[in-house]
Specification:
50% helix; alpha/beta; binds 2'-deoxycytidine-5'-monophosphate; 220 residues; Rossmann fold
Length: 220
């Protein structure tokens, strides 16, 4: 029997991370934050002085990834990188390196290895279109630019970073633009995706919508 996958894709700061981990928790499923993998490669590249267009080196860095995701924290080589990979600079680099087909191909295996019983909730940009095209439920989660910038601002402040909301707005628009217009695995809803705009909804409401949809369609 195939292991069921719920794919949740959407632009940056649309709330997919929180929603996906809450849905996974409710169903007792595993959880994949695919953006964290791109961020880990981006951080490794920044630390090693590897440029965003050096595909060969980026692929080598990706091959060396053996991250551990535990209780909401991300470990790599014995280092807790949970906060380091959330920095804006790292997110920007992740979006820049994510345009390379060879890097995406290298990360495919790692992402698919998260599919284990009893099920997986995977979030990112291409979970429903490329990585898990046979997902039982595909959700495309959006929110207005302003709402997303405000959420990102709140998140950064809570994590102890300083932030400027106008810079964040400009930055997330630039990142969306790049993620949506790259030739390989661009950010776009799968044809069979359930589209949900979370601008005026609470996290609880979004989680409920996704769970209702999944249970309605997929429980006997
Ligand atoms: O979801 P996030 O903001 O942590 O992702 C950071 C960047 O990684 C995002 O701007 C584009 C890239 N990414 C991707 O191309 N494909 C994914 N499945 C996840 C992230």
């Amino acid at each position: 029997m195939t292991v069921p996958v719920i794919a949740i894709d959407g632009p940056t700061a649309s709330g997919k991370g929180t929603v996906a981990s809450r849905v996974a928790q409710a169903l007792g499923f595993h959880y994949l934050d695919s953006g964290a993998l791109y961020r880990l490669v981006a951080l490794a590249a920044l630390e090693a002085g590897v440029e965003a267009d050096n595909v060969q080196e980026l692929v080598r860095l990706a091959r060396g990834l053996a991250p551990r995701f535990e209780a909401g924290r991300v470990w790599q080589d014995g280092r807790d990188l949970t906060l380091a990979i959330r920095r804006e600079e790292v997110g920007r680099m992740a979006s820049r390196i994510a345009v390379h087909a060879a890097l995406r191909a290298e990360l495919l295996r790692l992402q698919r290895a998260f599919r284990r019983p009893p099920g997986l909730v995977a979030e990112g940009r291409d979970m429903g279109t490329v990585v898990f095209p046979d997902a039982k439920l595909k959700v495309f989660l959006t929110a207005s630019d302003e709402v997303r910038a405000a959420r990102r601002y709140q998140q950064l402040i809570e994590q102890g970073f300083t932030a400027n909301i106008c810079d964040l707005l400009a930055d997330l628009r630039a990142r969306d633009e790049r993620d949506m217009n790259r030739p390989v695995a661009p950010l776009k809803p799968a044809e069979d995706a359930y589209r949900l705009d979370s601008s005026a909804l609470t996290i609880d409401e979004v989680v409920r919508c996704v769970l209702d949809r999944y249970r309605g369609e997929h429980t006997p």
